[in-house]
Amino acid sequence: MNVGIVTMHRLHNYGSFLQAFALKKIIESYGHYVEFIDIVSPINAEIKQGKYDVEKLLRNCKRVVRYNYRLSDILKWRHDIKSVFNSSGRTWLGYNDNVNDNGEYDIIVIGSDEVFNCADKVLGFRPGMFGHLLKTKRKISYAASFGYTVYDDLCVNVLRERVSEMLSEYEAISVRDKNSYDIVKRLVDVEPIISLDPVFVYNYDDYIEEVNYGDYILIYSYLERISSDESAQIKKYASENGIKIISLFSYYKWADYNLAADPFKVLSLFKSAKCVVTDTFHGMVMSIKYNKSFACYVRASNYNKITYVLKYFDLERCVVGDKDSLRDILDSVVSYDNVNDKINYETQKSISYLGSFM
User: Fold this and answer.
1) Cα angle vertex 176, ends 6, 32, to 5°?
2) Molecular function terms in GO for this entry (predicted)?
3) Which of 129, 108, 111, 131 is CA-nearest to residue 1?
4) Which helix (H) or strand (E) is 199 found in, with range?
5) Mind listing the pLDDT tens digit for each residue in 108-122?
6) CATH top class, domain 2-44+95-201+346-355
7) 246 in Cβ contact with 217 (< 8 Å)
8) With 70 as the cut, is the pLDDT of residue 60 above it?
9) Most buried among 88, 129, 298, 325, using CB within 10 Å?
10) What does the domain layout of the chain look like in residue ranges?
């Protein structure tokens, strides 16, 4: 079969890359041809006008002032990150500079990631992310998420009927969190299944290599989201334990290393880390996947998807609250036996779900 995937594969984001790669490899294992479908966003027109280039420059200038960074360091780091993702995307995901949005498919798989997020302040509501008007005989979703969109957002923005109509065209619906489950159930009166993110499901062992940084605490966050109080706790913990600080995906002056690593080296760094501090969904996923001691700062933008997974795996104690000590969380012993049993069970369920359509 000719299979198309609708996801966030072109984002310069390690989680987006790794989930896209994993889903592609899983479907290819059934002997099918797989490619990613590009969904043109309203943002593209503004990008062409140079608006976002100007905004990025202004944001970088603010960072220089706020965090006492050197502008050259920020620009070099951003250039390196962009180069890594452009190279990795071409090599492993198979895309190029051309927009792939006019193919015909036997089936389209929508997901995973926040493909249903209608409240995204940058990308906005994109019917194509629901598979609207794409040329296919069948549509399903896998581990799709509404992100921080809640049901009331759809009502306020008069999107409820449109989204309901598009979801009604699916042969089956799989989501990855309770918020998305609840929205689908209210919109189309169908009980979707909740599936693991592909990063949990896929075995990356063939792509992981040893790293040699000694003992280190790994920081995986979006830029500017680690506050001064949070960074103070991180630096104190590293100093007390005699370990280095490695930051991925964000440039922090207080880190010993700010790495623009390729996506598979990121997995290697997670696997070898002494412990992890993260405030992202996939940072949490990779920490759990490799049975790490980790602390998670939950933000408003990822509350729905992170809290569901942590609750399911009984790892809510890894969340850093207002009165929690980072040291106490990172030093606590996490038993992963039950967690790994659940991952194995959910992995088989996810593989069976996808296999039933392949």
Assistant:
1) 40
2) transferase activity
3) 108
4) helix 198-201
5) 999 999 999 998 777
6) alpha beta
7) yes
8) no
9) 129
10) 2-44+95-201+346-355, 205-336
